[in-house]
Amino acid sequence: MAWKTFKWPIYHILVAALALLMLYPVFWMLFSSFKESRTIFVTADSLFPTEWIWQNYVTGWKGTSGYSFGTYILNSLTIVVIATIGAVISSSLIAFGFARLKFKGRNFWFALMMMTLMLPGDVVLVPQYIIFTKLGWVNTILPLVVPSFFGMPFFIFLMVQFIRTIPAELDEAATIDGCGKFRLYFRIILPLLKSSLATAAIFSFYWKWEDLLGPVLYLNSPEKYTVSIALKMFLDSESASNWGGMFAMSILSLVPVIAVFFAFQKQIVEGMSTSGLKG
Amino acid sequence: MSLRNHQSLRANMTGYAFISPFIVGFLAFTLIPMFISLYLSFTTYNLFTPPKWIGLGNFEKMFTGDPKYWNSIRVTFTYVLVGVPLRLIFALFVAMILNTKSRMVGTYRTMYYLPSIIGGSVAVSIMWRNIFSNDGIVNSLLSALGATPVKWFGDPNASLTMLITLSVWQFGSSMLIFLAGLKNISVEMYEASSVDGASPVRKFFSITLPLLSPIILFNLIMQTISAFMTFVPAYVISKGEGGPMDGTMLHSLYLFRQAFMFSNMGYAAAMAWVMLIMIAILTAILFLTSRYWVFYETEKGR
Fold it and tell me: In this protein, which residues make up the domain named ABC transmembrane type-1 (chain A) (predicted)?
C-alpha cells in the first residue's frame, strides 16, 4: 500500500533527475558563457558564475577574423532560407507525383529514391567537389543550396506517406470539376500538406544551420563563412583563450535551433516518431 | 485505341514532369558522381593534373601499405559497434520509463530530446571537448569520487570513449521512435500476462521486445549507417587532426583529410567505395538475420 502512495512521487523524482543530468552539459555551457574566461575551468564544477559577465557576448560578437558574428549569422540565414525553400517546393512536387500520379516506371524511381536515402554521402563527396570546382562554384553558396532544389529523399518520403492518407475522392471530385494535375497539386494537396511542409522546413533548417562539412569545403573567404565555421575558428584560435566569448557565441548559435524546437515542438516530435530517420 | 495510347502517354508525361527534379538531381548529384568516384578509385588524382590510371593500386595501398587506414577502420568499427547498441539500449530504457500516462510526460520527452536536436552543431562538439578537458567537469567529478582523472586528450582510447559518450547522449530520435512503437502495443497483452502471473522481466522479454523488434531493426539500420558517417564531432573535438595518436580518426575524417588536405582524390574515392561495400554487407547481414529475430504480428496466423 505504501508503494502505491509513493510510486508516482518517486517516479517523478527519478525521471526529472535523469532529465536534469541529461541537460546538465547544456546548462554548463550556458552559465560558462557568463563566467570570466580565466575562471571557467577553475570553477568547472560549480554551475553558476560568481559574477555575471555579459562582456563575453560583446567580445565574442567581434568574431575572430575581422568580421562580426552578424555577418556569419546573415550568411547562415541566407543559405538556410534558400535551401529550405528549394527543398520544400521541389520535394512536395516530387512527392505529389509519386503519391498521386500513375505512370510507367513509378515504382522503379520510387525504389531508387528510397535507396538514395540510405546511400552514405562519402561516396559522392569527392566527385561532387570536383564537379562543383569545375563549374567554378567554389567560394559561392551554390554548392550548398542548388542540390536542395532537386528534392530531398527524406522529405519526399515523409510527404508521400502523408499524401497517401488524403482521400483519393478529393482528387476525383476536383478532376471532374476540370482541375488539371498541377492545379490539383497546388490548390488541393498543397494546402492539406501544411504540417508535412512545416516538418520538412524545420529539419532543413536544422541540417543547413548545423552543416559544417559543406561550408568548410566550399567557402574559403572569411566574409562568406557561416556560423559553424566561425565557431570552429574560435576553437582553433584558442591561444587568445577567449573562452567566455567562445561559449557566448556557442550559446548564440544554439538560440535559433532551440527557439525553432520550442515553437514547433509538437510537429518535430511527431515528425520524428512517425517516420524519423535522422539521429 | 489510339486515343487510349494518347491518354496514357499524357499521363506518363505528367508523372515524369512532376518527378523530373528528382530524376535530374539523382543523375547530377548521385549517379554520375558515383561513376566518377568509381573511376577515380582506380587512379591517382590531385585535382590539378589529369587522373592517372593505376588499376588496383589504391586498394593495394589501403590494405597492405597504410596502417593509418586500418587504424581508422578499427576506430570507426569500435565507435559504431559500441556506440550504436549503447545508444539504442539507452533510448529504449528512456522510452519505457516515459511510456506512462503521466501528465508530465510531454515535458520529459522534450527534455530528453533536446540534446539530440542541438547535437549536430559545432557548439555542442566544442562544449563536449571542454567538458572533458583536463580540468573540465568530468575530471572534477572523477576526482571528487576518488578516481584518478583521465587524460582525455592524451590517450587514444579515452578520446574515443569521449566521442562515444557524445553519440550516446544524443539518443533522442531513437527514443521517440521507440516511444511510438511502445504506444502501439496493446495494454490487454500486458494485462493478460499479469493474470498469468508474469514478472515484469518476463513481460519485457516475451511481449515488449518481440513486438518492438521491427522498430529495433529500423533504428539499428538507420543509426548504424549514420554512425559510420560521423564527421563533425571527430573533426571539431580533435581540431581536424583525428588525434591523439589517431584515436578519433573516424573513417569520414580520414577520407576528408586524404581528399582535401593531401589532395589524394583517387585514394579517398577508393576508401569511400570500400566503406560503401562494408556498410552494404553489414546492412544485408542485419536484414538477412532479421527473419530470425524480428517478429511481425501479421504473420502470426500463417
Answer: 73-264
